[in-house]
Automatic annotation (TrEMBL):
Binding residues for NAD(+): T225, N256
GO process annotations (BP): glutamate biosynthetic process
Organism: Virgibacillus indicus
Taxon lineage: Bacteria, Bacillati, Bacillota, Bacilli, Bacillales
Family according to the record: Belongs to the Glu/Leu/Phe/Val dehydrogenases family.
Glutamate/phenylalanine/leucine/valine/L-tryptophan dehydrogenase C-terminal domain residues: 218-459
Protein name (Swiss-Prot/TrEMBL): Glutamate dehydrogenase
Amino acid sequence: MVHEGTSEQVLQEQKVQEYMKKIYQMVIDRNPNEEEFHQAVKVILNSLIPIYVKDQTYMDKGILEQLLEPERVITFRVPWVDDEGKVQVNRGFRVQFNSALGPYKGGLRFHPSVNLSIVKFLGLQQIFKNSLTGQPIGGGKGGADFDPKGKSDGEIMRFCQSFMTELSRHIGPDVDIPAGDIGVGAKEIGYMFGQYKKIRGSFEAGVLTGKGLGYGGSLARKEATGYGTVYFVQEMLKDHGMSLDKSTVVVSGSGNVSIYAMEKAIKLGAKVVACSDSNGYIYDKNGIDLDTVKQLKEVDCGRISEYIETHPGAEYVEECTGIWSIPCDIALPCATQNEISERDANLLVANGVKAVAEGANMPSTSEAIEVFLKNNILFGPAKAVNAGGVAVSSLEMAQNSMRMAWSFEEVDAKLHEIMQTIYQNCVQASEEFNRPGNLVVGANIAGFQKVADAMVAQGVV
């Protein structure tokens, strides 16, 4: 869209738009059939038009041409033996995307859907997310098409050991520091850390984050992404004369992010009425009993449908996507990518939603985001909203380096401050580049500018 201005400004904007189209086509040509990666790139390119209009340097230096091409992509086979004695083979990935601000940092995802497109889209998002935290970390991501569901502890352990045997060649406390993501929790991190320690013959605590508290983990890491999501929402609402108190909230998912987003929202006075898993969702008009959800998901490893066995007043509905039909003040998509479609977004708007904040990575389609922005819904994009997890991972690295541990309250206070700063920086960037209220543009520009300036300063590397 061309904004009003001088003829020179209009021409410059047209020039930048053509440049962005050229860059996008280059990405598609170089990375065919990688739809998730294409989607992430498109949103970023559209958001960066204002900063490219203002500063020609980034175009002259070929920053996007470099930024959108990973510094290194590693794929490898992961052979392991199941409980029947049969050899299984999965595919592992690590994309070391950008190290302008520090060593690569990003999670590992174990899920059947994992492929190169998924890992690259997550890695690209991670560059901007990590930049927004203000911590000295670059962007990376990894994982495998292994499904931990239905596997025994022995099978998970043997898979993790095989995975780390190869990955260990490419990571290190000052090189690349993986963490957990979907399908990778403290158990999996523990198995991988043990294998890394055995291979290296040394205790390098800073090589992985999300570790157990007994061997270098950080308090508040489990809660960080969910808490951070709500801290961002709290700032966004406060800025517009609203609060979480007495608000009705719908949260998709029932994993780590969802559970602790619900916990913090409830502590701040909100009523969470729905959550989900991959099979369906529960609606409890009296407010979700979080203790029951925690028991089901963190202890029993059960399904969310079991909630109604102890709460007969609640409803369970098959098909998790229907959760967005529930009227609410605040929607927190915390499950997976592209879970909110254009239709879902229109339904949320029609039902009076006031704010949407992305606790998961890219949970709203591009069309859904347009619906929210056009209807002046407060919208917090994933790379800003869910940055709390990696922020506390970076704090875990700091504690490992100092050979000390901070209290839960100390880490939580630092997390709260980081999320406040992220929100303020996004708002400031959106206003500086004449897109007030558009935090998608604000987050992308604020994250990009820091990385791009570091890349310019370091030259072509």
